[in-house]
Write a structure and sequence with these properties.
The protein has 7 helices and 10 strands. By secondary structure, the chain is an alpha/beta fold. It folds into 2 domains: about 110 residues, Tetrapyrrole methylase, N-terminal domain (Cobalt-precorrin-4 Transmethylase, domain 1); about 120 residues, Methyltransferase, Cobalt-precorrin-4 Transmethylase, Domain 2, CATH 3.30.950.10. The strands form 2 sheets. It has a 5-stranded parallel beta sheet with strand order 3-2-4-1-5, with helices on both faces. The protein has a 5-stranded mixed beta sheet with strand order 6-7-10-8-9, with helices on both faces. The radius of gyration is 22 Å and the shape is globular. The N and C termini lie far apart (about 70 Å).
Length: about 260
């Protein structure tokens, strides 16, 4: 026999990459009406908490276990509260949300998800690049190096590098030497362009450009150890140019326009 649903709810909100203006309108409205907020204090910009009503209880989950987080959710929803679980970037990327969903499902607590701007896209905006250039790459791989959290062998960075696609690497800048070794092992030439974007969209954002041959030393000198995106691929600097998009080519016919003859 299923449990009766509580009157409260949990809303998982993507806070965006750092700039408080990069939260979605829907996400900001959820914060404005929240009765309680549980936020990832190690990564979420605290300025976003200013959107909450004065006196709204806020809990920094950086110091909490999963069980302590869901206990706060149980407590609040049992009293009819709307709880915002504020995650950095987009909750679906390295957000550890599935395990939270499972606990809420067991207690029959209603929840929903509001997506956010991932740091991968803030990083691309910071360097003013497009991941999907015609005839350069039409694929973007989002991944991370194995560390204290393992990675399936089939998803080892060297294996993914064999595709020579555009790549964004999360949570790995602390071992930049191993990142570069794996990319070279997978087949990227040493001249492949690479960018490291620390704290994309924050006031203290830092951007390093280089190649697989030079980037390790640059990261070391800059002292970047966390909160950085690593972008790799020819999309960063297409040495031999790239093809024009078909969408806006005057000779290309599609549903909304008849193309002219070349």
């Amino acid at each position: 026999m299923s449990q009766k649903k509580t009157n409260g709810e949990v809303i998982f909100v993507g806070a965006g990459p750092g700039d408080p203006e990069l939260i979605t309108v829907k996400g900001s409205r959820a914060l404005e009406r929240a009765d309680r907020v549980i936020y990832a204090g190690s990564l979420v910009n605290p300025e976003l908490l200013e959107l909450c009503r004065p006196g709204t209880p806020v809990h920094d989950s950086a110091h909490l276990t999963l069980e302590e987080v869901v206990a706060l959710m149980y407590e609040g929803t049992s009293h009819g509260e709307t709880i915002v679980r504020l995650h950095t970037g987009d909750p679906s990327m390295y957000g550890a949300i599935k395990e939270q969903f499972d606990h809420l499902d067991k207690q029959n607590i209603s929840y929903s998800v509001i997506p956010g701007v991932s740091s991968v896209f803030a990083a691309a905006a910071a360097v003013k690049r497009e991941f999907t250039l015609p005839e350069i790459s039409q694929t973007l791989i989002l991944t991370r190096m194995a560390g204290r959290t393992p990675v399936p062998e089939r998803e080892a960075l060297a294996n993914l590098a064999k595709h020579q696609a555009s790549m964004a690497i999360f949570l790995s800048v602390q071992d930049m030497h191993s990142v570069v070794e794996a990319l070279l092992e997978g087949g990227y030439p040493a001249s492949t362009p690479i960018a490291v974007i620390s704290k994309a969209s924050w006031p203290d954002e830092e951007i390093l450009h280089g190649t697989l041959e030079t980037i390790v030393e640059k990261v070391k000198l800059a002292g970047i150890r966390k909160q950085a995106q690593i972008l790799v691929g020819d999309f960063l600097d297409p040495a031999n140019g790239y093809a024009r998009s078909k969408l806006y080519d005057p000779t290309f016919t599609h549903e909304y326009r008849q193309g002219s003859k070349p």
